[in-house]
Design a protein that fits this description.
The chain is of the alpha+beta class. The chain has one domain: Tgt2/MlaC (Nuclear Transport Factor 2, Chain: A). Strands 1-2-3-4-5 form a five-stranded antiparallel beta sheet. Strand 3 and strand 4 form a beta hairpin.
């Protein structure tokens, strides 16, 4: 089924908003349940969205996002082919790219917090289903254990796992350019 560019862009906005994790300064989240973790992190992201500043989004991402994990996953089969000298630049550009898109579309985010509808933990992972307070729709979070806390691995909005969308975009750029990472770097600099 073909999806419109506007729909896909909206899904990417949600992906960028909710692809966050607890950082070292979030000690009160360290022993929290998966649901409590998602509520606290979601509140921080919604607060950053209300401010609408690129620098604030970069700060939130820098402290709370698993940027290298997100960036590596987004390369798909090209991950092992990335020149080691490009990794740090690539990670910085992914952070910048996500922050800019998030800031551009933050006005579209309506909500004051998250309500946990259900949570299911299994081994080193958890699935948490939430509803946006003051907004509409549900968001399902896929978490993985990271020490005594969690990290968000993926988010599902309207039936679509969002990390897959970013991966599709990045792999498409690489495929169209015969695996040339300079093309992906140029794409991220736009």
């Amino acid at each position: 089924m073909m999806r419109s560019k506007g729909f896909m862009r909206s899904l990417m906005i949600f992906a960028l908003i909710f692809t966050v994790v607890a950082g070292p300064g979030s000690s009160r989240l360290m022993a929290a349940s998966a649901g409590s973790f998602v509520e606290a992190i979601g509140g921080k992201v919604l607060a950053a969205a209300r401010a609408g500043s690129v620098s604030q989004f970069r700060s939130v991402l820098g402290r709370h996002a698993a940027l290298s994990t997100i960036a590596n996953y987004s390369l798909g089969p090209y991950r092992k082919k990335m020149p080691s000298g490009m990794k740090q630049q690539y990670y910085r550009l992914v952070s910048k790219h996500i922050s800019q898109v998030f800031a551009r579309h933050s006005g579209k985010l309506r909500g004051t917090g998250l309500t946990v509808l259900s949570e299911r933990e299994k081994g080193r992972s958890a699935i948490v289903k939430t509803r946006i307070k003051g907004g509409s729709g549900t968001v399902t979070w896929r978490l993985i254990k990271a020490g005594s806390s969690y990290k968000v691995f993926d988010v599902n909005v309207q039936g679509v796992w969002l990390a897959g969308i970013q991966k599709t975009d990045f792999v498409s750029v690489l495929r169209k350019n015969n695996g040339d990472f300079n093309a992906l770097i140029a794409y991220l600099k736009k």
